[in-house]
Amino acid sequence: MAIFEVDKDAMMEIFESKESIKKSVFAVMENRLTAAHLVSDVYILLEMLDKLEVALIGEPIVQAPPAEVQAPAPEQSQESAPTEQTQPEQNQSQEQ
Question: How many CB atoms lie within 10 A of CB 14?
């Protein structure tokens, strides 16, 4: 196993981010924060870990998901709206 040197400041940032996530988890559990706040904190930590991974290994071990998989939420909400609109029309035609 190879020995790597890691910048102390970078590790301190990661540890601080970890503590921030812990606080956010407790705040979400107590309904003082929304899950969106927690997601933001987690994303920041993941970005830091990605940078550390690249610095130590040279490339990410796990490849990022395709762009289509990363942001389907807005499209789904738009697609579900027409589906909901067509259902009442189908019910009306079945009743007649």
Answer: 17
Q: For residues 17 and 45, what is the distance between their CA atoms, to the nearest angstrom?
A: 6
| Cα separation values, 16 from 9, 55, 61, 63, 77, Å | 10, 19, 24, 26, 36
Q: What is the pLDDT of residue 81?
A: 47
Domain chopping of the chain, boundaries: 8-70
Closest CA to 49 of 21, 20, 15, 1: 15
Does pTM surpass 0.85?
no
